[in-house]
Design brief:
Helix content: 55-70%
InterPro entries: Post-transcriptional_regulator (IPR025716)
Number of strands: 0
Structural class: mainly alpha
Organism: Bacillus infantis
Distance between the termini: 36 Å
Strand content: under 5%
Number of domains: 1
Shape: globular
Protein name: Post-transcriptional regulator
């Protein structure tokens, strides 16, 4: 399978990804890996990408991610067995709250 259309932006948007991950940490959602957030974006949020998307649109999409949306996705994926990394007991509890 070919990579996601927005993969070409990944390096340029890394500061936005890091900012979103820091926001998750500040909200006490625990550690989320950059690859896990990127997977959410490409598999869920941007599953129907626009070929002519511009950099500012990609950054905006990253910054508008809500923690609840990401963790709902992560929970479903974990139940499907895709595994988004090992979750600690505390993280599992937070996901199920």
């Amino acid at each position: 399978m070919k990579g996601h259309v927005y993969e070409k932006f990944r390096r340029q948007v890394q500061p936005a990804l890091q900012s979103k991950l820091e926001e998750f940490r500040l909200l006490n959602y625990g550690a989320v890996a950059e690859d896990e957030l990127w997977r959410y974006l490409t598999e869920k949020k941007w599953r129907k990408p626009h070929e002519d998307a511009r950099l500012f649109e990609i950054v905006g999409g990253i910054l508008e991610v809500k923690a609840a949306d990401y963790f709902s996705y992560a929970t479903v994926e974990a139940f499907k067995g895709k595994g988004l990394g090992e979750l600690s007991e505390e993280d599992r509890r937070k996901l199920l709250e």
